[in-house]
Design goal:
Number of strands: 8
Distance between the termini: 71 Å
Radius of gyration: 27 Å
Largest sheet: 3 strands, antiparallel
Strand order of the largest sheet: 3-8-7
CATH superfamily of the largest domain: Clc chloride channel
Structural class: mainly alpha
Strand content: 5-15%
Helix content: 55-70%
Number of helices: 24
Length: 589
């Protein structure tokens, strides 16, 4: 009797590497989160924009009709956007202050500086706050919240299965890629974005690319199964056929690079102004909403995500005066929405600005040089790719995502030209302030570039730079332990048993989590013996090489390890800082 297909599937799954399974799970959650978030936004738009203000924004060709109706009840903009900001501010600053701003930057920060840790409540609050912000007409993108849903679930999964920090960071990257890939229907571009957006200097997390592709494909497949497989934007399939246009594309790319400066300057300048205001944080997004609402009363094109206006621009149906004002109004609108402390993505508004710059450039080029036969479609498409590449430092992702979102594969050559000149003109400016230049600058990769030398160095070499071990007996209570951590600033305490022998360590991170989760306990009743997290497996010895010690620190997620010296004595502890100092001094000898 042959085995059932179900048994064969289970057997096959068991043979898959665990990381593949984790990546699939993260992709499924990101795709499902994208579906739910998109549903909420559509409902909010119908209720608020269409129902209350009689404003029917255009939709991109892959999501509906590009026909639009400007608002009848334009005077409601400040009220509705102000209320939306107030609700978002309450959610953010009451439950998860780290969800303010654009979600992708928060995920980048978690990867580099927080060991990939994202609180479980962050994706939930980010989703709700962003839905309110965008649904009420705020100028923000859908991708930030979805990226943070995926990244947050990746971090949660790592906690559930007690995965090491390295894998947690990988799953955070997978979550970013799956979220971006699903909401933009760009699986390859979403994965590239996730591994590229972490750095500004053409560095990538290539080790995470395959699992991120898996997650992105899963998210895209789930989202596409419900919303179809068309690209977001519908084009006529323009192709590059005239080399004489390369000079024009070069000039356009240089222009986009220069336009990155005012965007970033305005975005963070307004952020700094709002941070300096002496009013409760909860009210700041409401003030930002009111300011955007006042502007939208006279220029409603700046409200909302704005993808539909790209479709109108591709068709050449956007008035010149609108194109002239639109990009700069959108910069302000996005800054009022997100820099005030509101919640949403920055990627969406950025590609909208780039696309409209393209339409504007095409109009001017046609008027000045009618013999070139310039049409708006190709410049809108390459404008999207060029501007997000210049502003976010994601040239490969900017290229591939735009091609997937528009089907504009025939424009790869001019898009590359625009991207190259945009990067040259924009210098080091970036909209993601948590990016670092390269892996060498990231705390996530400390030690990666010193492996060969660390293998030749031992704990004995590091002893002069190691700190003293701080001891506590098994019978000491939690109050005494907290006092020791406070006074000594140690990362671990060594615990001695009744015979005075080493019996394990207490980690400060474990104690913090224990205190937060068990506030109702009477601290004097909790003893050191109850808080031991690791036993003799944490010990290192004088002849151990520093590469192995660094790997053990990373695997156990500890700040220090006790050193067992001759005679069974533990007098010192070794830390990452001790290893770095030893490594540095090795060049002096």
């Amino acid at each position: 009797m042959s085995p059932s297909p179900f048994i064969l599937i289970i057997f096959s799954v068991k043979k898959l590497p665990k990381l593949v399974i984790y990546s699939i799970l993260v992709g499924v959650i990101a795709g499902g989160g994208a579906l739910l978030f998109d549903l909420v936004l559509r409902w909010a738009e119908k209720l608020v924009m269409v129902g209350l203000m009689r404003f029917v924004p255009p939709k991109p060709g892959g999501e509906g009709s590009s026909a639009f109706v400007l608002p009848h009840h334009w005077y409601l903009f400040p009220l509705i956007l102000g209320l939306g900001g107030l609700v978002a501010g309450f959610l953010i600053y009451t439950f998860a202050p780290e969800t303010e701003g654009h979600g992708t930057d928060s995920a980048i920060e978690a990867f580099h500086f927080k060991k990939g840790k994202i609180r479980w409540r962050v994706p939930i609050i980010k989703t709700l706050a962003s839905a309110v912000t965008i649904g009420s007409g705020g100028s923000a993108g859908r991708e930030g919240p979805i990226a943070q849903i995926g990244a947050g679930f990746g971090s949660f999964l790592a906690d559930v299965f007690k995965l090491p920090t390295e894998l947690r960071r990988t799953l955070v990257v997978v979550g970013i890629g799956a979220g971006i890939g699903s909401i933009f229907r760009a699986p390859f571009g979403g994965a590239l974005f996730a591994v590229e957006v972490l750095y500004t200097q053409m560095d990538m997390e290539m080790e995470s690319l395959i699992p991120t592709l898996i997650g992105s494909i899963m998210g895209y497949s789930i989202f596409g199964a419900f919303h179809g497989w068309k690209p977001i934007f519908i084009t006529q399939g323009s192709r590059f056929t005239n080399p004489a246009h390369l000079l024009m594309y070069s000039a356009f790319g240089f222009f986009l690079g220069l336009m990155a400066y005012p965007y970033v300057k305005v975005f963070y300048g307004i952020r700094d102004i709002f941070r300096s205001l002496r009013i409760p944080n909860i009210f700041k997004p409401a003030l930002g909403g009111i300011l955007l609402g006042a502007m939208a009363m006279f220029f409603p094109y700046a409200a909302g995500i704005g993808y539909g206006w790209i479709q109108v621009a591709i068709a050449g149906q956007l008035a010149f005066w609108v194109m002239l004002i639109f990009p700069f109004a959108k910069m302000l609108a996005t800054s009022f929405t997100i820099s005030s402390g509101g919640s949403g993505g920055i990627f969406g508004p950025t590609i909208v600005i780039g696309g409209i710059f393209g339409a504007l450039f095409a109009h001017v080029a046609s008027a000045l040089f009618p013999s070139l036969g310039v049409s708006p479609e190709p410049l809108v498409v390459v404008g999207m790719a060029g501007y997000i590449s210049a502003v976010a430092k994601v040239p490969l992702a900017g290229l591939i995502m735009t091609m997937e979102m528009t089907g504009g594969y025939g424009l790869i050559v001019p898009a590359l030209v625009v991207i190259i000149f945009g990067l040259l003109a924009s210098g080091e400016v970036t909209i993601y302030e948590k990016q670092v230049p390269n892996k060498l600058s990231s705390p996530a990769h400390i030690g990666d570039f010193a492996v060969d030398i660390l293998e030749s160095l031992t704990v004995e070499d590091a002893l002069p730079y190691c700190g003293k071990a701080v001891w506590v007996s098994e019978g000491e209570n939690l109050e005494r332990i907290l006092d020791l951590f406070t006074r000594t600033r140690a990362d671990i305490l060594c615990v001695r048993d009744a015979r005075g022998k080493f019996s394990g360590i207490i980690s400060i991170n474990h104690v913090k989590e224990f205190v937060l989760q068990n506030r109702e306990l009477i601290f004097p009743l909790v003893l050191a013996h109850d808080l031991i997290t690791h036993g003799e497996e944490v010990l290192v010895y004088p002849r151990d090489n520093l590469k192995m010690v660094l790997q053990k620190l990373t695997k156990l997620d500890l700040g220090e390890l006790p050193i067992m010296e001759e005679g069974g004595r533990v007098e010192r502890v070794i830390s990452r800082n001790s290893i770095l100092i030893t490594y540095s001094h090795s060049f002096e000898g």
